Fold these 2 entries.
Entry 1:
Amino acid sequence: MKLLLHCCCAPCSVSCIKSLRDDNIEPHLYWYNPNIHPFTEYKSRLDCLCEFASKENLEITVNDEYGLRSFLENVYSNEVSSQENRCIKCYKIRLEKTASFASQNGFSAFSTTLLISPYQNHDAIKSIAEEIAAKYEIDFFYRDFRPLFREGQNAARSNNFYMQKYCGCIFSEEERYLKKENKTIKKENKETVTTNLFFDRLTLLTGKEALKKLKNTYVLVFGAGGVGSWAAEALVRCGIGKIGIIDNDTICATNVNRQIEATSLTIGLPKASVLKKRLLEINPDCEVISWDKLFCLENADTFNIENADFVIDAIDTVQHKLDLIETVYKAGVTLFSSMGMALKTDPSYIKISSIWKTEYCNLAKVIRQGLRKRGFSGDFTVVFNDEKSQTKIIENQFEESNMDDNPARKKINGSIVTVTAAAGFFLANLVIQNILQDKK
């Protein structure tokens, strides 16, 4: 395939090109981005892309049109003044020029690195490109590159690429600064609020500025069991300002040995709702949202995952765990996931690593297999326990194929609070440390 790849910048191109090369597709890069302003921004992105192409021995064609005036004429009028309409018009301008060039220069197909960004209107880009492809009688090569977004951003940082802070056009730059200005005003209005005495000891350790960061952070916790419930409580006790709890289960007697909301008085009640009540008793100023429902692909939009700063995955069913991992990764939100803590008795064996580097964890092994089957090539941090299981494990206890008739079914194994709670604290601490070190 002779593919022309429209590139908006080097950071977005890295993983797209790697993905194509893995399939033996050597793309020819094409630069046409009259939407990028001011000129210094335009030049920085173009120079970085050309330098990257040179190092990777990639051919590149540069349509060097700094089109400030023509761009404004095309995307701003009474008909297209809204952000959504401006973006649609912008996609059409760039993709049409790309398709036209591809058609005139013997390319068999064209594509775009816009497909990697979780911040762009992915469906609109695909629809517009397919329409333009038909017009120019050329194929549009579609691939959802979004799961590779974080990987590409990390690669770009490690290679010291120029990293832009807004999409490119002067409207997005204006919106970026207006948001900053509004946030500054709100912060100034709240500066007179004294530090909550609940977190006085924490403030002595981290300082007041850190407490403000924690208060402005939103974390979603999927699963309120032996791991997730302790992670949620630890986060609230560390000053997190907003937290969402998702679990469809009700408390039963067998939960009392390890789940923080489970007591003799709460048996039969919904876990998420009971945990919400407990968290608000700890810190009434925390915004706590609970969903007494199961996460699945069909209701993923319910939780607005893209609005969260962090997601903690403490789900213990394979299919839904895989679905959540993919959903969070596509949303571009930082994910910390718990692997298997059942059949373990020693919390000192708990470790933190990439999902691809765990040992002696059957659940992690099956998750890796499931991710590979789904074509997932990204990465995320997990908490796992590499202690050899204390009880003989029933073969294939975590196999996704065994759950086709009932995706919510899970294997029940022995577990102890000293391990599950420790895992929850590890997950909460990953969030806290990322906030304190500005790694969000």
Entry 2:
Amino acid sequence: MAHEHKLEIFRGLLKFKSNTQKIWGVLIFLTIVTAVEVALGIVKPAILIQLTFLGMKLLNWIFITLTLVKAYYIAWDFMHLRDEKTALRRAIVWTPIFLVAYLVFILLFEADYVYNVYKDGFVMWDF
């Protein structure tokens, strides 16, 4: 007996009649998120560039968040994690999210250190 996949997205907000419709719905969602990323990359609103959060521009945080949303949703729907047991889902999804958060922390911490070294004049800005 074949296992039936759930035909809804956004925790049941949108329900589809077939797998094909669901694939198109997820594709449209991912396309909208990508379009928002591209639009923000082209326009670069001044307010998002001026505001900083944890040492990084708010625009960069938005890009990181939208990229994680897309990665999560691709894994959730196209890799059928929705149909797996809870422990496996958490192991697959949360591990990379914490790893990315850790790598972003390292990036910010080291970048701030390098900036302060150059700012204090220990090394010349020759490049």
